[in-house]
Amino acid sequence: METKSGTLEITILSAEDLRIDNRPVKKNAFVVVSIDAFNSKTTKIDREGGSYPSWNDKLVMEMPVQTRFITLQVKYCKGSSSGGEKVVGVARIPVTDFVGGYSPETCLQHLSYRLRDPKGLKNGIINVCLRLKESLHDCSSQAAAAAGSIGLGIPIDGRRDFGVVTGIPICSGYPSNALFR
């Protein structure tokens, strides 16, 4: 059986207000983007950005048509004396945020997501741009139907399919922390 897929182009731009144990991250942050257990890529390490790192790394990945979420894990490398990596925060991007809806699938989307630390507490924001380089052909209705079948989503504009509604605030004059709950 052949599985259809599309090509996802995701640019990891930056993050804001990253903390470990309620202290600002000092350096060495990076992001792991996962589509599934076998398909992940990593950005370069930002050695100077501290709790406001910037990567501007473009990653190109194959995305199967049945994909429901893309997972972003912000991590940092501990110093060479202690070794290892520590998870700063995680965001899960529903595919329905950028496939289907009012924009063409191949349109570039600029999105921001709240990060949650391993305990589930709010821990910063990640900013990304993403688009499908090739359309998934009817993926929007399949993804919406899949979301509805697992109890996610609400009816939108009288449609019979279900979609996940996501509001992305775009305004100026407010501190970025005030935009996210």
From TrEMBL:
Q: Where is the C2 domain?
A: 1-108
Q: Tell me which Gene3D superfamilies the record gives.
A: C2 domain
| One Pfam family named in its UniProt record | C2
According to the lineage, what is the superkingdom? Answer: Eukaryota
Q: Name one GO biological process term.
A: defense response
| PANTHER family the UniProt entry points to | BON1-ASSOCIATED PROTEIN 2 (PTHR32246:SF17), INGRESSION PROTEIN FIC1 (PTHR32246)
- This chain belongs to the protein called BON ASSOCIATION PROTEIN 1-LIKE, BON association protein 2
Q: Which organism is it from?
A: Hibiscus trionum (Flower of an hour)
